[in-house]
Amino acid sequence: MSFKGAVNRATGSRTVESIARAGYPVNGVLHLLIAYIIVRVAFGFAGDADQTGALATLADQRGGETSLWVVALGLVALAMWRLAETVLGLHPGEHTHAHLRESPLVNRLKAFGLAVLYLALAFTAAQFALGVGRQGSDRAVGLSARLMQSDGGNLLLVVVGVVVAAIGGYLVYKGVSRKFLGDLTVPGGTLITVLGVCGHVGEGVVLFAAGASVSGAPFLRDPTRAAGLDAAVETFGQARFGQTILVVAAAGFAAYGLYSFALTRYSRM
């Protein structure tokens, strides 16, 4: 059996699909935690308003170590499915012979990008579970400062920023156009549609701002701007009506978190 055939056989398993779906509520919880931290920041409390901050919040709870391992495993499960989509194209679980399809390269690249993101988050969650992941945005700032010492490092920061901004822009487009409804096995309904639109647009705007901040850091010679989501939240907070903007951003992340719970059951696989 060929490699693609073996991957196709795996995605045809209901057990494998169920394990992959278990990653969606994990993703939902992380988004809700980020929303919670953004609200705290809006009202003057300290915190890293990004995935690292969400994992730190989880680590501080009773049974945090166990929860972090659950998060890591859930994200790995989602990553493995995205890697399967990288090989077979989107929604391989819907096709008995997905390995024989011709799938657009752009779809497989998007799936690969998500797989890398989920694996990176899973690795960070595992670090927290082992007690070695609490550097937060300070680590990102330190890494950015080192990268700024070379032309290649500056170029890398610009590229990363542009990619993140592009992802944010795509999420906004996906939300406004309601293209996310094509990822569902049901028509959607009012509640899921509202959560999907608000979640995609809200998160997309913040990611776009984060990407712009990262790509602008080398030109401003300011490594603190390369702290990703946390830097974007700080920038929003300093703007006029910053508190209101942050509360709206938190609502967007919370909406995406709740939408992720709906994906547990209704996502096309």
UniProtKB/TrEMBL annotation:
Keywords: Membrane, Transmembrane, Transmembrane helix. This is DUF1206 domain-containing protein. Residues 22-87, 111-178, 199-266 form the DUF1206 domain. The keyword Transmembrane helix applies. The chain crosses the membrane at residues 28-47, 67-90, 111-132, 152-173, 194-220, 240-259. InterPro entries: DUF1206 (IPR009597).
